[in-house]
Amino acid sequence: MLRKIVSMTADVLCTLDLPEPFPTLVSARAALRTLGRLPGAEGLAAELHARPVDVLCPQLRDPIDAAVLDAGLPRLRCVSVYAVGYDNVDVDAATARGIVVGHTPGVLTDAVADCTVGLMLAVARRLCEGDRELRAGRYTGWEPTYLLGTEMRDAVLGIIGFGRIGQAVARRALAFSMRIVYFDTTDPTIADDLREIAQQVSLDALLREADVVSVHTPLSAETHHLIDTDALRAMKPTAVLVNTSRGPVIDEVALVRALREHWIAGAGLDVYENEPQLAPGLAGCTNAVLAPHLGSATVRTRAAMGELCARNALDAIAGRLPRHCVNPEAWARASPPPLTAS
Q1: Domain edges within the chain
Q2: How far apart are CA 116 and CA 112, in angstroms?
Q3: So what's the pLDDT on residue 127?
Q4: What confidence score (pLDDT) does residue 333 get?
Q5: What are the beta bridge partners of residue 287?
């Protein structure tokens, strides 16, 4: 039986402006409004209560908790996150309220993998340290033992979290003739080209063996501070740690101590535990390369994320399950009617 189209204008709210084609796609079907700021949980709840919307498109730094979701009811039907990770959303609370949560998987894979390899090389070959030496006028000429680093050829790359991005990093590492070992808390599907090459090991074994440890696991209660003091002490003193997943997977205070006391050789970080703040002392660690969350920061990738975010929102508006939905059971429970013809 065909569901009747509700005669009302659909409203979509973003906290920050999203790149094309998001605004063009959404504006063709709905009234689009942007706050232009990150208001925090209380501010966002107040905004939704005062001006209800059908779809909320938040950033990964917007906390979407039960209070925010309640403020959006009874109208809010979808939270379409402009990110592949959705740990900022209380998915259980959204499901209980019949609100679907969409995200943007797949399109970030290559960009984040490229960034990971860039951090890996920058730390292992001490490129940023060399850059600082030159700019400060401390470089006096080539010397046999000056700023010696780690060579990637035949080094062991330990990947924590062997999903799409972890496997994309592995493929790039093969160009350096690196040996790949991985650990995953789930049972990921391994691509055919990596099945006979990548070796699954325990986390303890990975930390002991790897010359480079690269973190690609989602943030959860299980992975929070997965890399803690004990993990850092288990790594080789010549090892490099790279994180392009989520900041709280690493205990940043423990990492600062590890870098200062040279438990490990260095770290390359694109994400931080209390982003955008850094743990005290981290900025002063010369053996750390710090990037400002640039993993997906390419023109093509951010545009692709915008399109997926828009498509999720438009699906919900049209009375369809969003194509990249993490809690489809919420849609089955609510079964909202279409607001516009599709």
Answers
A1: 11-107+299-334, 109-290
A2: 6
A3: 98
A4: 82
A5: none
Distance CA 268, CA 212 (A): 10
pTM, two decimals, is 0.91
pLDDT at 67 over 50: yes
Residue 221 corresponds to which tokens in the numbers above?
A: 């209660």
Query: What 3-state class would DSSP assign to 88?
Result: coil
Beta bridge partners of 64: 89
Check: CB of residue 182 under 8 Å from CB of residue 212: no
CB-based contact 81:103 (threshold 8 Å): yes
Q: Which residues are catalytic, by number?
A: 246, 275, 293
Question: At the fourth CATH level, which superfamily is domain 11-107+299-334?
Answer: NAD(P)-binding Rossmann-like Domain (3.40.50.720)
- pLDDT on residue 337: 86
Chain segment 27-49, per-residue pLDDT in tens: 999 999 999 999 999 999 999 99
What is the percentage of the chain residues whose pLDDT exceeds 90? 94
For domain 109-290, which CATH number applies: 3.40.50.10490, 3.40.50.2300, 3.40.50.720, 1.10.3470.10? Answer: 3.40.50.720
- The beta-carbon contacts of 46-54 under 8 Å, at least 24 apart in sequence, are 46/71, 47/13, 48/13, 48/72, 48/76, 51/11, 51/13, 52/11, 52/76, 53/11, 53/12, 53/13, 54/10, 54/11, 54/12, 54/30, 54/78, 54/316, 54/317, 54/339
- Dump pLDDT digits (tens) for 127-174: 999 999 999 999 999 999 999 999 999 999 999 999 999 999 999 999
Contact yes or no for 183/51 (Cβ under 8 A): no
DSSP string of 13-61?
Answer: EESS---TTHHHHHHTTSEEEE-SS--HHHHHHHHHHHS--SEEE--TT
Q: 149 — phi, psi (to 5°)?
A: -125, -160
Structure tokens at 245: 């997943």
